[in-house]
Predict the 3D structure of the following.
Amino acid sequence: MNKILWLSLFFGALLWSGFEPKDQFTWFLEVIPAIVALAIMAISQSRFPLTPLLYQLILVHSIILMIGGHYTYAEVPAFDTLAELFNWHRNHYDKLGHLAQGFVPAIAARELLIRHHVIEKPRWLAVIIVLICLGISALYELIEWWVAELTGESAEAFLGTQGYVWDTQSDMAMAMIGAILALLLLSRTHQAQLQALDISARQTH
């Protein structure tokens, strides 16, 4: 995917998401991680370009955040339909979001750890990555709590618990599952792209 197409999809989704969202405050809270990620990539792109796979995953994750921001996670229409079809007691779009919260950071963490030679023993790599993703998930849950404490009822849509008492724990479990799935499904493809990126960097220099 070339840069122009990537940016077109990102900003197209962002503009749609920001047009009359269900709750303006929730929209801001949900899309700000995507905007921060874009800023970091723009600043570091020339000296630390990422693999095509990671760029694509970040775009998909950003769009998931933008959809959740537009509707709020508890009211995404497609998942309301699925809830009716499968007789779910709640809208589960937030679980897709938390699955992505483990899936995408797992590849990002893998890329950073390998390229910066942080872990010398490969057998520990997967364990550390999963723990990093769990840490990110836990931090996000803490941020949700802090926002709720500071803003009161206005953060209800951001929390998205929908009355489920185990929502926090299940969110973290989904992030863990996402991280494990990413490593199982994408490690080989990611490794090939890392090697190609390394060869390209050596040829450039």
Observations:
- Residues 41 and 49 are 8 Å apart (CA to CA).
